[in-house]
Design brief:
22 strands; 413 residues; six-stranded mixed β-sheet; 24% strand
Length: 413
């Protein structure tokens, strides 16, 4: 079997298949954890079950379209070019779809969290995990009230949270400046100090189990005696009975080029920047400033500042204004140190119209399987995706309901 893509999802698929005795080769031009999986805030949280296109989006839409929200920016020309995806995305901001999506994502996130814990222990990286939860910070009472729908949703799914007064927030994070009126402590959450290193550790474990990794790009797939011939950029070709496409934001172009499939995928672009820790600027867990739209997380590289969402074309030039605004706001909350020499990072999070990933057989292409479209929570949902796909591929009973993730909801043979 060949897995295309060595991000969190691709490595998870390969690990799950190898644990079931399958011979697996992973192909990726950048190597494990070097692209989209490198740039997130490292949070493994059940609160991530909340999709961006929830029923309250309609009331927020006029303000968002003005393009001044710190947590959301968009390029109008790029959105005109993706108007079909945009309309479909908005059409899924309905109560029934929202309930289906949150139910499916909660199950996937919970199971992935259990697998992450077991896998980190097996891969020898349990020390990278923190189990102190994470914090939603509110600069005003009005901001806290505006988040009521999200809190109600988390309560409906039994996510453990606690509302904190300023003095209680200070007890948890004493170095935050006293600019926040309230906080929500999401206790059902863990975080890691380097998402990319976690993926690379899983890849090393895969190799120790007998899996293979090739650092090159897959250029074409061709039917070959009931299987597939996988051609790569280095001029080689290998045969595989089955192929998994887990290329994240590159999946859309790959499926169109190989099979003429039109995958309705948009891109939630995001940025991050690192700062050298200084005395009086430490955090014990990631924090999300809801008013300013950034997450600040303690990482091995220092403090990582991640921006909100930018809807844009995948390969559009960087637009650092959103990250610069996030830095200004973060400096109000914490005495950040100097920027590190590491350059700013930009990644594209692949999002399908219903904010659920696509996991299952590729319509009309026997032996091709899809594991893609994880928007900005691929790190939280990768292991569960890998196990679900492996079970489907091998005809095993599935731990999770596969119906909400079936590719046929958007793709036809």
């Amino acid at each position: 079997m060949v897995v295309l893509g060595a991000g969190m999802v691709g490595i998870a698929c390969a690990l799950s298949l190898r644990q079931r005795g399958m011979q697996v080769t992973v192909i990726d031009p950048l190597g494990p954890g070097a692209a989209t999986s490198h740039g997130n805030a490292g949070v493994l949280a059940r609160s991530s079950l909340m999709p961006f296109n929830h029923p309250r989006l309609w009331s927020q839409l006029p303000g968002l379209l003005r393009g001044r929200s710190p947590g959301f920016r968009y390029d109008p020309l790029a959105m005109l070019g993706q108007w079909r995806w945009g309309l479909s995305f908005l059409s899924h901001a309905r109560e029934q779809v929202f309930r289906e999506t949150t139910t499916a994502l909660d199950a996937l996130i919970r199971h992935s969290g259990e697998l992450h814990r077991r896998w980190m222990d097996a891969a020898g990286i349990a020390h990278r995990r923190r189990d102190e939860g994470w914090l939603f910070l509110y600069r005003s009472e009005a901001g806290f009230e505006a988040g009521a729908f999200g809190r109600e949703t988390l309560a409906r799914f039994g996510v453990a949270t606690a509302t904190l007064a300023p003095h209680e927030l200070h007890d948890l994070e004493p170095h935050l400046r006293p600019i926040f009126r309230k906080a929500l402590w999401v206790k059902d959450a863990s975080s890691v100090d380097s998402p990319g290193e976690v993926v690379r550790a899983y890849a090393r474990w895969l190799l120790a189990l007998g899996g293979r990794l090739e650092t090159t790009a897959a250029t074409h797939l061709q039917r070959n005696d009931g299987g597939w011939s996988v051609g790569t950029a280095d001029g080689r070709s290998s045969r595989a009975d089955q192929v998994v496409v887990a290329l994240g934001p590159w999946s859309r172009d790959f499926l169109r080029q190989q099979f003429g499939l039109k995958l309705p995928m948009g891109f939630e672009r995001g940025y991050h920047r690192h700062f050298t820790p200084t005395p009086g600027a430490t955090l014990n867990r990631p924090v999300y400033d809801t008013a300013a739209g950034y997450v600040l997380a303690p990482m091995a590289q220092g403090l990582r500042l991640t921006s909100g969402v930018e809807l844009n074309a995948q390969h559009a030039p960087p637009r650092p204004a959103q990250l610069d605004a996030a830095e200004r706001a973060a400096r109000e909350a914490l005495p950040l140190g100097e920027r590190t020499t590491e350059p700013d990072w930009l990644g594209s999070r692949p999002t399908l119209p219903d904010s659920r990933p696509m996991v299952g057989a590729c319509p009309g292409q026997p032996g091709v399987w899809l594991a893609l479209g994880h928007q900005h929570i691929g790190f939280s949902t990768g292991p569960g995706t890998g196990e679900l796909l492996s079970q489907l591929m091998l005809g095993e009973p599935t731990t999770l309901d596969p119906i909400p993730f079936r590719p046929q909801r958007f793709l036809r043979a």
